[in-house]
Amino acid sequence: MKLVNPWENIAIQQIKPGSTIHNFDGKVHILYVLRGSIEVESDEESVKVESPGFYILPRSESFHLTSTQTLSYDIALYYNYDKNQGDNGYQFEFRGDSRKGGNSSDEEMSHLANKLLSGFYLEKSSISDVEVFNLYFSILSLLERKYYKEVPIRSNKSMRSRIEEIKFYLGNNFEKDIKLKDIAKKFYVSEQYLSRTFSEIVGQSLSDYLLEHRMRNVERQLVETNDPVTSIGYEAGFTNINSFNRLFKKRHGISPSTFRKTKTPIQVKVSTRTQESNQKELEAILQQVDQEKKRKVQIDIHNSEEIRISSAILNVGQASKLLMTELNDQLAAFEKYNLFEFSRVSGLLNKSMLRVDGNAPDYALIIKAIGKLVTRGWKPFIVLNPPEDAEFVTSVGQNHRTYSWENWLKEIEELFRLLLNHFGKSALIQWKIEVVRPSPWHYETGINHGCERFKGKLRSYDLFLDEDFVKYYDEVRKSLKKVEPGLQVGIGGIGLEDKESHRYGFLANLVHDGIAPDFYGISALPYSQKNSTSNGKSAIVKSAKENYILMMTQSLITYLEDNLNVSDLYLTEFNITSSSLDQLNDMAFKGLYIFHHHLGLTDFYKGIGYWLVSDFAYPNENAGETIEFRGGPGLLTVSGIPKIGYYAYEFLNKLGKTLLFRDASLFITKNEDENITILAYLYAPVDPSYFSSFEKYDMNSNKLIFHNPVSKNMILQLSKLPADCRNYRAVVKKMSFNDGNALDEALKMTSLNSFDMETIDYLKVRSIPITYMRHIQTRGGTLEMDIKIEPQQILCITLERMY
User: Fold this and answer.
1) This protein's superkingdom (predicted)?
2) Cβ atoms within 10 Å of 121's Cβ, excluding its own
3) 165, 294, 342, 631: most buried by Cβ count inside 10 Å?
């Protein structure tokens, strides 16, 4: 396949102050300012864009640009704006600018714009088509991910603005057979009103304006080309050559052929010296912008607030696994992390846990399994899922029991009375009991078929039905409250993936029945997207978006606030891959994925639990093989080797309770000893094409599956440090895999790269490169340091006070 010239998709023009940009051409126009500033005025607003910065021009508007001593460009990219247009008065557009600052996507946009300008003006003869296409699609990808907004359609657009849009349309389509009625229909005005208003505003009729554009084109073509006069007339939109010749002679007094003979092509000479001067200035500014990209972050130590970091939930899986030595040995690796408050376990009443002695159930194994969690200092988070084969029988030895609805409630009450007697009320009321139903995937695949149905004397329940599940939850909650009113019984199985289920699913039935759970258990697992692509990966592209879980959470909370009492939310499970084994699970990315979401969601959830603690607990029997790194979803391998995700919790565990600063790449806290922890990270989301690619990715080319943002340079300035402390000791831990060989590194890595920096006594400078820092002397209570973060990197700097 032969690719077209990539520059045909890109139009770049240097902006002259006082000029006007008409954004009616269907392109994406990015106003990029490299020097000075520029005022952008439209009918809607007036904004000021300062260098280095950009402003994405809203479509279907005209913009007047005013400024002096500026170097700015209009970068226009071809884009199909007509796709995915909204309904009910809304449409999708690109909107955004860099005026607020501090946004990683804004920095990425500036970086790409610099490279595009450099390629267009300085390297056009040497830059390859592939590089240009890469820049073009990288900018469009960034726009799609970060700047695609749903905005209301302006039905009250001023007629003057519409006339400008019509003028632009005529100027770009004059060669077509254009009629007044067609224009009126296209721009939603009547023919009479359009004809009258156009003449009033423009000073000439629409037909005369169209003729003017056609004649100007003819004049230019006659002078600049050797094309036949007839062809030029037809291509300019004249359908009758006799009429064309008559109109031309009326305008100029001579025929088109004579006009051509009397005119000579206009030679526009651009001074070579001026051109070289402009290029040198552009090159110098681009270099200066790159050098000045360091963002200065000023932090007043006294300007702080108390913060609650969401408790971590340890998902151990099935209760039966807790009875095995291997998993219990692995759980010891998490005891040192105070971050973990709950340990979430399911399957307590499965046939593997519940023995039958005659007709009486034996709960000894359940008590033993729960005890293993309690003795380690974790509060049980019990997933009370329906029994296996509820409509049929559960067999243990020669004993058979049928689960009727009444028997199931009785069994639940008996179990929790035993737990109450064994562990005591003060412990039990701190636990969480999450009443869930099997996921939609279980229904689709037929796993545990029958567990959703109960038959009772008074009524039957089909948990597949939203209305029945809510009634089932209410009955189970009442039974548990009879055991101990202080028990916290929540409803689980709320998926973030399907917003429609919030309005029409079992949450809507909670609203209808007036039931307010003690808490909500939320999961972000794409069970409903189990369809496999041609490469064997599950098609879950939508959850690869950087802030997908945050956006879905905000949507859910809005619904709850509008309709229900908002009790505590727990994100009980989240993952980016489905239950299929996938190399993403064992990569450094998973550490950043956990880290990014735990910090980004901490304001919304009381507890957050990554999907699974260990590959050993993975329900798929294939995970029991001895292959260590094979894409299992756990934080530990089958034999207990920590994977990259495990270390994210080590970093989170170092955070203090007082927040000093936070943004998309920094989280800075201090503890009661005034020791400061700086967490700097650069999260790189997965490129959705990874899940739909027809070719499997090479395990040594993992960098190809990420959106890789540019590295970040910043200067941290900590002021008003304690007066009685002149020195700090810096301990730095780093987790960085940006060479594309993340899996290979993971195989080698059994502990973090932890090191103390070189000693520098009596430091004389205030700016300290982080790579040369150990003992740091503050001056006037202020400390300043340079930090550079690479994509897919977590950097943890602990500043310990020295007296």
Assistant:
1) Bacteria
2) 17
3) 342
Please tell me the total count of domains within the chain. Answer: 4
Rounded distance, CA 566 to CA 558, Å?
10
DSSP assignment string, 394-440:
EEETTEEEE--HHHHHHHHHHHHHHHHHHH-HHHHTTSEEEE----H
Distance in angstroms (rounded) separating the CA atoms of residues 718 and 785: 9
What is 166-186 written as a DSSP string? HHHHHHHHTTS---HHHHHHH
Cα 499 to Cα 469: distance, rounded to the nearest angstrom: 18
Residues 362 and 461 in one domain: yes
Residue ending a domain, among 608, 630, 654, is 654
Q: Which amino acid is at 467?
A: E
| CATH, residue 218 | 1.10.10.60
Q: Are residues 148 and 163 in the same domain?
A: no
3-state secondary structure of 388: coil
Residue 638 · residue 625 · CB < 8 Å: yes
Pick the last residue of a domain from 598, 632, 654.
654
Given the structure tokens 């078929």, which residue do they identify? 449
More confident call, 123 vs 22? 123
Cβ-count burial 231-240 (b if 16+ within 10 Å, e if not):
ebbeebbbee
436 and 519, same structural domain? yes
Residue 583 near residue 704 (C-beta atoms within 8 A):
no
Domain extent at residue 694: 689-802
CB 783 within 8 A of CB 721: yes
How far apart (Å, rounded) are the C-alpha atoms in residues 636 and 629?
10
Q: Where are the beta strands (DSSP E) in 497-651?
A: 519-524, 568-574, 607-608, 612-614, 634-636
Strand order in the sheet with 10-14: 10-14, 71-78, 27-35, 53-56, 96-97
Whether 683 is covered by a domain: the verdict is no
Number of Cβ within 10 Å of residue 230's Cβ equals 13
Tokens of 265: 């092509």
- Residue 446 maps to a domain: yes
Sign (positive or negative) of CA dihedral 273, 279, 281, 287 = negative
Residue among 390, 400, 548, 364 at smallest CA distance from 461: 390
CB neighbourhood size of 129 (10 A): 12
Flag the least confident range among 209-223, 471-485, 584-598, 742-756.
Answer: 742-756
Each residue's pLDDT tens digit, 519-574: 999 988 654 344 444 444 444 444 455 677 888 888 888 888 888 877 899 999 88
Q: The domain spanning residue 44 has which CATH number?
A: 2.60.120.10
**Is 66 in contact with 41 (CB distance < 8 Å)?**
yes
- From the CB of residue 612, how many other CB atoms can be counted at a distance below 10 Å? 26
Q: Is the pLDDT of residue 372 over 90?
A: yes
Amino acid at 18: G
Same domain membership, residue 92 and residue 65? yes
Both 84 and 216 in a single domain? no
For the cut 90, the answer to whether the pLDDT of residue 292 exceeds it is: no
The answer to whether residues 425 and 494 belong to one domain is: yes
Tens digits of per-residue pLDDT, 126-154?
788 877 887 888 888 888 877 877 666 55
> 468 to each of 455, 473, 612, 675, how far by Cα in Å?
12, 9, 29, 53
Is 531 buried (19+), middle (13-18) or exposed (0-12) by CB count in 10 A? exposed
Query: Looking at the structure, do residues 165 and 142 belong to the same domain, yes or no?
Result: no
> Residues 458-497: pLDDT tens digits?
677 787 788 888 999 999 999 999 999 999 999 998 887 6
- Same domain for 334 and 248: no
Q: What is the DSSP letter of 122?
A: I
Q: Is the pLDDT of residue 578 over 80?
A: no
Cα 680 to Cα 588, 714, 729, 782, 794, distances in angstroms: 15, 10, 18, 20, 6
